[in-house]
Specification:
3 domains; four-stranded antiparallel sheet; Transferase(Phosphotransferase), domain 1; alpha+beta; single chain; 13 strands; three-stranded antiparallel sheet
Amino acid sequence: MTHISDIKLIRTDTTLDLSQKAEKVDTVQCLANGEVISIRLASSELAGSSRTKIIVGISVSLAIFVILAVAAYMFWRYRAKQNEPTPVVIDTSEDAWKNDFAPRDISGVNFVEMQTIRTATDDFSSSNKLGQGGFGPVYKGKLPDGKEIAVKRLSSSSGQGEEKLLIYEFMVNKSLDIFLFDPSLKFELDWPTRFDIIQGTARGLLYLHRDSRLRVIHRDLKVSNILLDENMIPKISDFGLARMFEGTQNQDNTRRIVGTLGYMSPEYAWTGLFSEKSDIYSFGVLMLEISAGRGFHGSSLAMRTKAFLHMHGNLGARPGE
């Protein structure tokens, strides 16, 4: 018996054998121990091998397609879940509003129950309405202890978030411009009173710029935003346009110029740059108006200076004369 230890297959051209029902056959030569052995294989046997390769290829492609389809579906579900709105749980308990302030330092801040405010303002009656601001209406109210308050009701459409209420001390004498520009009231402001108003406003501005935990730039300091209590003590009001600075920041820039023309500093009106100096400039115009007893905020700086010198040429003249 011949032992075959090293066999090499050599493919030859396809031949035709008429004795095998005209089937195509392939001749394969085997090299065994130096001898060449020719073996003829029917084409049907070779076709079975080709079909197996095709089936394997289709199966692998189908498996890859299924895997990609599943991965695409899972990714779509993930993105859809990310875009779903997060359900909002509203706490309707009586003290729910206090939870909003839990993580913050609110020492020194007094809170008033909603029912107390409704009672004080007669449920926000139109008869108690003091005015309408850019962020909502302001109502007059009276607390159970007899203290009068002003309640600003921030509307949800004001851009400040959900509706909230701000409670202020009610200022009996309203704003400074009423006394300065009313022909019958301006003479009630003698020089000592005017000096005290200027000094009190300066102290308030100093607190905003130096003593407050956050530095506050008012950006709209004017006589109508200075409120007077029953003792004619001034209080700075209306912080709707104010900006807060943190750390070492001492100025900022904006493309949206807001405020009142005439009270704006030139660099703020022209370039949008504002800082403490912007408020100081506004305070200078305000001080000029208090001293002279008339408004100069609509005039140029040169005209305001000239008018001021003219008004105070006679140091003995009464303000407004």
